[in-house]
Amino acid sequence: MKAMTVKEVIDGFREGVEENAERDAYANELFQEAVRIGMELNTKYHTLEELRELMGRLIGKKVDGSFRMFPPFYTDFGKNITIGKDVFINSGCHFQDQGGIEIGDGALIGHNVVLATINHDLSPKENRKNHYAPIKIGAHVWIGSNATILPGVTIGDWAVVAAGAVVRGNVPAMTIVGGVPAKVLKVIQEEERHERAV
């Protein structure tokens, strides 16, 4: 019998296939691997090169040499995260990535940001059933501290998510969104792209 692959586990999440003992057992191995690597990442000092190597192990692919982060960092799966070039992730972020997380080049992710790609049924009889939807973060997006991005959200290039926002719908490129739930606060003009935020 051929061994289960990470892709098959991710496809199972995406397709919503419920019972599959072999896939679920392998998924649990991957969850535990994420916990082990996360503990290694978060419980002692690492050089930037070591952090990149650990993140590469965690997400299952090479991380670009321009990637920067401050631990701690938390994920319960890890293998469904894709990180572009020149990305910065600040401390305390939680990425729930079973549904898939794509981070575009030049993105800045602030302290304690939550990226959640899983939701549950509202029905009490079915609330343990998971529903997965990807989060896509465009190029040069800035997500402020303590923001929460919910399943299925796409954030367009050069957009800004204000600190503390809860984003449940797509964010157009070149806009600033904020609030709970987040709404468009401003359209960024081309000439403003290179100005300071404060």
Automatic annotation (TrEMBL):
Keywords: Repeat, Transferase. Belongs to the transferase hexapeptide repeat family. PANTHER family: ACETYLTRANSFERASE C18B11.09C-RELATED, SIALIC ACID SYNTHASE-RELATED. SUPFAM superfamilies: Trimeric LpxA-like enzymes. It comes from the Bacteria. GO terms for molecular function: O-acyltransferase activity. InterPro entries: Hexapep (IPR001451), Hexapep_transf_CS (IPR018357), Hexapeptide_acetyltransf (IPR051159), Trimer_LpxA-like_sf (IPR011004). Pfam families: Hexapep, Hexapep_2. It comes from Parablautia muri. This is Sugar O-acetyltransferase.
